[in-house]
Amino acid sequence: MKILFIGGTGTISTAISRKLLESGHELYLINRGNRNGELEKAAQAGGGKLIPLVCDILDEAAAARLLENMHFDCAADFIAFRPEQLERDYRLLKGKTAQFIFISSASAYQKLPSNYRITEGTPLANPYWEYSRNKIACEDFLMKKYRDDGFPVTIVRPSHTYDERSIPLGVHGNCGSWQVAQRMLDGKPVIIHGDGTSLWTMTHNSDFARAFIGLAGNIRAIGEAVNITSDETLTWNQIYQCIADALGVPLKAVHVSSEFLAAAGTYDYTGSLTGDKANSVVFDNTKLKQLVPGFCAVKRFDEGCRETVQYVLAHPELQRKDPEFDEWSDRVIQAVVTAAGAVRNGQMVKTE
To answer: What pLDDT, on the 0 to 100 scale, is given for residue 349?
Structure first.
């Protein structure tokens, strides 16, 4: 296939790009060219062809010049988050691709959910997170273009997808997840939102890539929205235990309500927790398996987590320190411990 990716080197898209090139496909990438080196190696190893179209996608005129007289079997945008970015893609790609795949988000599903089991028919509504509302607006725009103009869109909805470069977890600061791992290594307690028993799904990007490629060029996927997640369901306690086990340290967990974490300020946990991770969800991938016969996610979380931890430990450049989050965690944990002690001792706890 002749495929165009806008982006192509992120958490999700790198695995897809690599697998396409290893399978001999012709892949065009519109990006700034900063991280294409690894993909060039995949092309050499697998016989695929990598064609960088180096430009800033924000420069629509430059992108239009690069795409002049081109046509693709499939195109996808991995870095679009707002409707105006999809409007640009529509202008650039109308009549130039047999399929356009938009990466939406499972966080767009109804919050709070009326049913823990999530299918593509679950309503889209998230009053807690602007990111999710923007994804919903993007979907609305594209589906209108499909209905009105025949624009060949396929929408995919990933949940929590991870790769080897970042340890996936629930509560972290603005510099990523490493500081939580560092706290574990230092023997310090870490925060788990809620009581840790809500249900969640982690999907390795290699599994996502296989499902995505099965949808690419698939005429039955045109006009459809499709979940792509693992079928494995875990509690957050299990997720953090897997991380601690991979690090070879005991887990010292302090459970803190999501509402408290959001009220504690500094970090936007209203969106990422109340609007996403604090809700128990189990994804139904029946539709995906009908469109991609034989697909099954094969990377168990404990295995993928162990690989990620080993990779991050071997690459110091991925170990981004976050002293602000470390101090914030200490304050939150101390506040919870102090409040519990005050209640035990019959003391009043200030609420203002």
So the answer is: 53
